[in-house]
Amino acid sequence: MEPVAADLLMALASGTAGAAGQSLWERLRALVQRSPDPQSDAVQGDDEPELGALVGALDEDASDEERAARLAEGLALRARQDPAFAEALALWRREAEQVSGAAAGGGTQHQEISGGTQHNVVFTRDVHGSINLG
Length: 134
Known about the structure:
The structure is a single chain. The protein is mainly alpha-helical. It has helices spanning 6-14, 18-33, 48-60, 65-81, 83-103. Helix 2 (18-33) runs antiparallel to helix 3 (48-60). The longest helix is centred in the last third of the chain and has 21 residues, at 83-103. 25% of the residues are buried. Mean pLDDT is 81; it is low at 44-49.
């Protein structure tokens, strides 16, 4: 399984991915609190508090790369031990990457000004609210 990128975790924890990102962050929180599959190599209750604590720590400081890296490592460890968790995490990661990519500028845009003199030029994307050029 491909590991979850620490920068993806930081983006979702910080809220920069909007409402969809917040929803995904809550889903990750629920996923790490789930009990391991009894058939897996994971020891019941052994790593859930740790993962839950790591999610909480990243909630407190979403810009902390070390916390994000520790969470990514913990997720990878649990995924290696628990195939059901690995499958759920892989699905979560694919959705998170799509949401994060859209929030970070998914979709290409090209803006160009040429010829003559322009006044009051504004380039925007995804405006949610009014713009006042006063």
